[in-house]
Amino acid sequence: MAEYDNNSDENHCSELGGHLLDIKSQGENAFIDKLGAFEESIWIGATVIKNTRNFIWEDGSRVDEYFENWLSSEPSNRGGNENCIAVVGRTNVDSEKWKKWNDVSCLYALSSVCEFD
Ligand SMILES: [Ca+2]
Ligand SMILES: [Ca+2]
Predict the structure, then answer these.
(1) Which ligand number lies closest to the CA of residue 44?
(2) pTM of the predicted model over 0.85
(3) Ligand 2 center from residue 82 Cα (angstroms)
(4) Does residue 7 or residue 73 have the better pLDDT?
(5) How far is the C-alpha of 100 from the C-alpha of 70, rounded, in Å?
């Protein structure tokens, strides 16, 4: 998979006619399990609402009104610029942390998981 930052105008999902994966239920989260053993963290399609710490999916719905799967100490907003959400890859984390969510800088180059409605 190619890696992109989380600028929604540039990520390849929109070029392909889809959008970054949103995970609104335990059932949808099972899709993440089906991805198998990914090593590096991956983008999901949530970004922070400017001047808040509330996240929204690309369709404008609030993340905290649906399913959430944060790491225990997240979202941390470390450095004050963690405005996107990544699903944590297997590299450098204990097994119970793998595939949970972390708020991270949107400027990281990570793989994107696309969803097509
Ligand atoms: Ca979805
Ligand atoms: Ca964080």
Answers:
(1) 1
(2) yes
(3) 6
(4) 73
(5) 5
pLDDT range class, residue 91, cuts 50, 70, 90: confident
Q: What is the rounded radius of gyration, in angstroms, for the C-alpha atoms of the chain? A: 13
| Every domain of the chain and the residues it spans | 3-115
* Alpha carbon distance 79, 7 (integer Å): 19
Residue 114: phi and psi, rounded to 5, are -95, 150
3-state secondary structure of 102: strand
The top-level CATH class assigned to 3-115 is alpha beta
CA of 108 to the centre of ligand 1 (A): 22
1: pLDDT confidence band, cut at 50, 70 and 90? low
| Statement: residue 8 has pLDDT above 80 | no
Reported as type and span, the H/E element at residue 30 is helix 26-34
- 18 and 115 Cβ atoms separated by less than 8 Å: yes
